[in-house]
Fold Kynureninase.
Amino acid sequence: MGDLLSEARSLDDSDQLSCFRDEFVSIEPDLIYLDGNSLGRLPKRSIEIANDVIARQWGVQLIESWKTWIDLSTTLGDRLSQSVLGAKKGEVVVCDSTTINLYKLALSIIKEQRGDKEARKKIVIEADNFPTDRYIVDSLAQEFGLEVITLPVDDSQTISIDLFEEAFDEDVIFGCFSALSYKSGARIDMAAVNSIAQGVGSRVIWDLSHAGGAVVVDLEGTESQYAIGCTYKYLNAGPGAPAYLYVRSDLIEAMENPIKGWFSQDDQFEMAEKYSPKSGISRFCTGTPNIFGSYLVGAGIDLIAEATIEALEAKGHALGDFFIKGFEVELKDLGFSLASPKDQSLRGSHVSLSHPRARQITSELIDHGVVPDFRTPSLIRFGFAPLYQSFIEISRAIQVIREVTIGMR
Amino acid sequence: MGDLLSEARSLDDSDQLSCFRDEFVSIEPDLIYLDGNSLGRLPKRSIEIANDVIARQWGVQLIESWKTWIDLSTTLGDRLSQSVLGAKKGEVVVCDSTTINLYKLALSIIKEQRGDKEARKKIVIEADNFPTDRYIVDSLAQEFGLEVITLPVDDSQTISIDLFEEAFDEDVIFGCFSALSYKSGARIDMAAVNSIAQGVGSRVIWDLSHAGGAVVVDLEGTESQYAIGCTYKYLNAGPGAPAYLYVRSDLIEAMENPIKGWFSQDDQFEMAEKYSPKSGISRFCTGTPNIFGSYLVGAGIDLIAEATIEALEAKGHALGDFFIKGFEVELKDLGFSLASPKDQSLRGSHVSLSHPRARQITSELIDHGVVPDFRTPSLIRFGFAPLYQSFIEISRAIQVIREVTIGMR
């Protein structure tokens, strides 16, 4: 362990992002929080921002504040595009939840081909899609009599590109994949999969929940068409902050939001009798947006913009590599196996280990001040949020995992 | 004006709820805020609560807090049922927006009769339905080839009960009405309309946005089947706080949430491959809920529970009566007409005046420290939130309205 510790110290010393650790509210000094991939930590500035939104914007300015609030979904979307997602202005909106945003996109795409005699009949997903994505896709498939093809994840936790090639044909409406698996953190080559899908006139909806703020997504460079994602993980916007939705600009006007709420209505406050959608991405808004959560998304975006997403990805990978090194030296002999890709270019910012007693070990770890999370049946996920994680935390975590596991024998 | 002023003083002196005014954060001393029907004011306790949620629950306890947060939608729903809506335990859930909640209920009801040869073909709404409700109903009607019947509002701003009798027949799937009109504040006799609808095997979805927290709704006593509503008006939960959804207990199990997110999944964290809905009202949850907003809903419910909804309704009516008296004495000769029912039992907690120059008058009033709101084309809405409004504010508002209008001549 001595070697790991001194290496951690040296890595922390040369970490250009270490100053960002101080941007977050302190937690208990002995706590090692490795669950930023589930719920990101609280940025200090978010306390001030929340207080301003509540005490001044709501408390004092009251209804007057709607003049600013009314455009938040799109102004935040533009900031997210620029600093986190690599999309263009007017392509992203911040609203609703990931679940609802996926529902809107998937249903809109399915309905676009209605009345078409050559209508496509299949949707492709992967075995590791996040449950809410699977439930939404499955239920729409059932509703419209479509077949769902599920791509298996192989032993290396990735999906062979050949499987995408095989699955996409001219009968596939769209594929829905997590850019980073919530289980293994495995990364899909978005550009390659987009190219395969678009080569047969199909499309892909990307779930960026575990990718946004952790790795360089580059929606434009990868020629992505549709995406959704949440903001409470690496974007540190707090529990239940609003999600985002992306549609490539040239595809927006053909789409119809199936949930036609007043925030998607052109000239909203004219209160027109008939629905007429806004032009542009804000047609995907629905009801009154969550204003507090929106401002906290703004704080999260700013932090990423300041650190730069490129530097964050690099540090996330270094943290993961260091953890895997610790696993190989200290944990491999205790029944753990690596359940994430070893190659950093195939990974996001969390690393999973599997162990037959994963549930119990997770619980013991939490009792000992190390907080990963458990995913059924045998996975422990260790999230390394590059904005606030230190290498020394990882070396200490490795030590605690070893001690706890030995103690349970 | 002298008479009005002294009457206001005397009414304030005998106001049993006047102590609740101090429960709200002070606004500028000269500001008369009459827009609580659009965005309620900030309760002092909400600042502390928000700070606790952010700094302690999120900032320090982090992921551990999900143990409490996970049930918020239903625990809040139960508190709302008991103190505000007159529903039973297990019938209300707090989640999403009013728009999305209406979409879920309406689509679920429409789909329930699918495959039925005798399927009903009509939906009944009223001309004054809030736009988002109309857009949702219209779009679903179009989607499923249904006819929308719109009941006209008569000169007294109400809808004759005869019109409901005429409209509801055995071909009506459901009606969707605002219990209180967003324009006029006119109140519909929910029990009577429920009885008419149910008499022909039909149903009603009530939008309680302007009623919840302002008047006694009594969902159980009125034999209501379905309802939705927002929390940022008389529930004072802040901009974009989550909305609520009610289904009478005996009707829940037959319904299917069309948006099958993971928060509606039985044994959610088992992350099962196949969707299987929760039993009970929480099957209407969708994605990760807005936690900050949820806690602020809790603060709003508590205030209403302390004041009691019966006392609030009585005071709201008294405030409205006093305003109408002021209108008759001071404003009638200046081109204003009453655009709300004069009879308090037919009204909620806001009163509207119409005037040919309503837009300009509203703008002038705001410049002079009186904040109502304008609704196109010629309506000024004056909201009287019984928790924090005083009679003296109303007498001062009447005076300012008179002065401003005379000054514009």
Observations:
- Chain A has a mean pLDDT of 96.
